[in-house]
Amino acid sequence: GQILFPHSEVVSASHCTISQEESTYFLIDHSSNGTLVNQTQIKKNKKIPLASGDTIQLSKTGPILQFQVS
């Protein structure tokens, strides 16, 4: 699935991806404005693990999402 922000000036069309490998989820940033996980800027194109409850912010001034696994 995708989450789209079609009129955003800070969220890229393909800002980041979340993938699953076995029981672990990973986020990869593809944006020009950056992505923060738990208020920490992550490196572009670097795969980092996610845990349930982590916050994902799409650029420093963009929307904040909470990652949940049920």
Descriptive notes:
- The chain has a four-stranded antiparallel beta sheet with strand order 4-3-6-7, with no helix packed on it. Strands 1-2-5 form a three-stranded antiparallel beta sheet, with no helix packed on it.
- By secondary structure, it is mainly beta.
- A hairpin with a 2-residue loop joins strand 3 (35-37) and strand 4 (40-41).
- The mean pLDDT is 93.
- Helices cover 0% and strands 40% of the residues.
Topology:
Layout: E1 16-21, E2 24-29, E3 35-37, E4 40-41, E5 47-50, E6 55-58, E7 64-66
Antiparallel strand pairs: 1-2, 2-5, 3-4, 3-6, 6-7
Briefly characterize the structure.
The protein has 70 residues and is an all-beta fold. Helix content is 0%, strand content 40%. It is built from no helices and seven strands.
Tally of contiguous helical segments? 0
Rounded to the nearest angstrom, the distance between the terminal CA atoms is 17 Å
Mean pLDDT: 93
Alpha-beta content class: mainly beta
* Low-confidence regions: none
Strand content: 35-45%
Share of residues in helices: under 10%
Overall form: globular
Order of helices and strands: EEEEEEE
Say how many strands there are. 7
The biggest sheet amounts to: 4 strands, antiparallel
Report strand order across the widest sheet.
Answer: 4-3-6-7
User: What does the radius of gyration come to?
Assistant: 11 Å
